[in-house]
Amino acid sequence: MIGSLFLSIIFHSFIILVFLFGSDFLGLKKKIKLTDIPIEVVEIAKKSEAVSKKIEKKKESIKKKNEYTPPKIIEKPKPPEFAKIEKKKPLEKQQKKIKKEDLKNEKKVDRLSSILNTIEKIKKNQDKEDIVKDKTVESKIPDFTGEKLTISEIDIIRRQFIPCWTVPAGIKDVSKISVSVKLKLDPDGNVIGSKLSRDYGSKSRSYKSVAESVLRAVKHPACKKIQVPKKKYEMWKNITLNFDLSDID
Amino acid sequence: MDLKKILIIFIFYIFSSDCKSEVRIDITEGNVNPIPIAILDFQNNSLEMNSLGKKISGVIRNNLERTGLFTNLRKETFITEKVNFNRKPDFSDWRVTTAQVLIHGRIIELDNKKISLEFRLWDVFQEKQMVAQQLQTNKNNWRRIAHVISDIIYSRITGESGYFDTRIVYISESGLKTKRKKRLAIMDQDGANHKFLTDGSYLALTPRFSPASQLVAYLSYFGRVPRIFLLDLETGKQKVLGDFPGMTFSPRFSPNGERLVMSLAREGNTDLYEMNLKSMNLSRLTKFKGIDTAPSYSPDGKDIVFESDRSGRQQIYTMNLKSKKIKRISFGKGKYATPVWSPRGDLIAFTKFLNGEFYIGVMYKDGKGERVVYKAYLVEGPTWAPNGRVLAFYSQNKTKKNITNPKIKVIDLTGRNLRELITPSDASDPAWSGLLP
């Protein structure tokens, strides 16, 4: 009796603990996050901010114009010194040198190797510059990796399939038919697999006809490669397209 | 123990539901362009058979093109015009042409009279064979076999039964308006094999095809008395069903061809009657002071649709033949007339007169979803193709100078694909047969 009471207390307290602290462990919070839609709102806000800034800038310029202040003469910015040294001159010099070397039948091997070394250095420097540039550009674009696709991104994907699907209009009960097809895409957006969500073996002839038109659509050459936000591959590597004819009469 | 199980199931559900969070996109629109198809000429080594093969594939091309659902690709766009019948085609060659469907075949002469046709239908994008069939017939029956092949292709791609191996009877009109000659005539659905069935010595009107056989009923005024004739197209024999004073439309056959439904003016009132063709017994269906007319059976033969002015204006009603329960289904503006139940059962075609114009429309059997498919100065006599997807009717247009002569037109349910049937003279009152046996 005491034993069972003791067991009951343990189990009840365990359930309470699960409800209190288990949400993190069980991923409940994550689930709540999934139902959130404010991603779009944030984006729109950002866009509107950008627009408002532009408008403000324009307003400022208009104010300045109204003040009849003569426009300032802006000096041409000087090219950065490192660019002079590291980019243009060495390249030109090296190229000229390479040409000269060719003409001299490549007798001076030591010099040539030094030139090659400097070219490699230049290339490395350029690569570094590119990486730095990429990083600065990437840092400006918000990193959406791992987040949901936005409505506009989904719409872009959706619109690509519209011209590929020839609607089998006029068939019986057309408005009652919807066909789902699962697509598998590679990281470049190529459709590498397609499968109907439900087999049409036991379905009506109308359903079969629609299902076949859907399969033709997803295998249409124009829909072989889909334009997708490549960073969000995890989000769109598996897509389910639901071809719905309820609005088509 | 149970709690542990529940907990495991609970955890599994959460994780599995998390993994399932793949993108789902609804596509509610597409293009309505016809499907590009490549039809190759049916091949044979002999010149005679080769030209026959060309004729057959030509008829198939025309049939499919007329539906408005397919567009034939020009031969000039083909990379090759010959495909080995026993091998899989090189689909990359056909994808380049934008063809979604490829049809090729061969014709073989069995003896002096018979030919055999083998054909394959391929889904180019899916690289899948859809149909492979062999058919045999007499040489002089080549048009019919072309229609049968067209039906097979159409049916396989659209999921609906075809309507190419069918015929249309109609009233051929000629002569002055005051002395109009109206003859019963018949032709294939594409206008070929045209012939007259009556000589024009008496007026023939509103022919109706029996869906189950090659019987045609038509109304004829003999000595100013409306008389119904039953013509057997196989034997060419016809018999008089009886004199029916006050009759304006021919009776319509039940789906099994055993009964006729008609409107008769008796004792100063027009009501609906049903006649059993075996016993020739006539039974009254409606008893109302207004005019009930133009009845048509549902495909299961259990209901009829008809027009009536019992509400004060011509409207469409349905009636269950067992319970005799009548239900009004049209409520729009204008006068509704000549309803015809679709052979596939879902729709009812009708004519409507509104603001000085005639309309051909369709509505669901409960009266919902009414939409117009064609309008003109005068449109009359809708008749369904046996697959219930295409309508034929006749129409006249009003120009600045005059009113055009009546012509038969064919339109699909979408209302986008309108074609005129070429007939030797003016044409009215078409009636579409079922698929030929």
SSE order and pairing:
The complex is a heterodimer of chains A (249) and B (437).
Chain A lengths: L1 H25 L1 H7 L3 H29 L14 H23 L5 H32 L10 H11 L16 E8 L5 E6 L8 H14 L14 H4 L1 E7 L5
Antiparallel strand pairs in A: 1-2, 1-3
Chain B lengths: L1 H18 L3 E5 L7 E5 L7 H20 L3 E3 L18 H6 L4 E9 L4 E10 L4 E11 L3 H17 L8 E8 L6 E8 L6 E2 L6 E7 L5 E8 L2 E8 L5 E6 L8 E2 L5 E8 L2 E8 L5 E3 L7 E6 L5 E6 L6 E6 L5 E3 L6 E7 L5 E8 L2 E8 L6 E6 L1 E7 L5 E7 L10 E6 L5 E3 L5 E7 L5
Parallel strand pairs in B: 2-3, 2-4
Antiparallel strand pairs in B: 4-5, 5-6, 7-8, 7-30, 8-9, 10-11, 11-12, 12-13, 14-15, 15-16, 16-17, 18-19, 19-20, 20-21, 22-23, 23-24, 24-25, 26-27, 27-28, 28-29
Helix pairs in contact in B: 2-4
Quickly describe the structure:
By secondary structure, chain A is mainly alpha-helical. Helices cover 58% and strands 8% of the residues of chain A.
Using brief descriptors, characterize the structure shown.
heterodimer; A: 249 residues; mainly alpha; Fusion Protein Consisting Of Minor Coat Protein, Glycine Rich Linker, Tola, And A His Tag, Chain: A, Domain 2; 3 domains; three-stranded antiparallel β-sheet; 8 helices; 3 strands; 58% helix; B: 437 residues; mainly beta; Rossmann fold; Neuraminidase; 2 domains; five-stranded mixed β-sheet; four-stranded antiparallel β-sheet; 30 strands; 14% helix
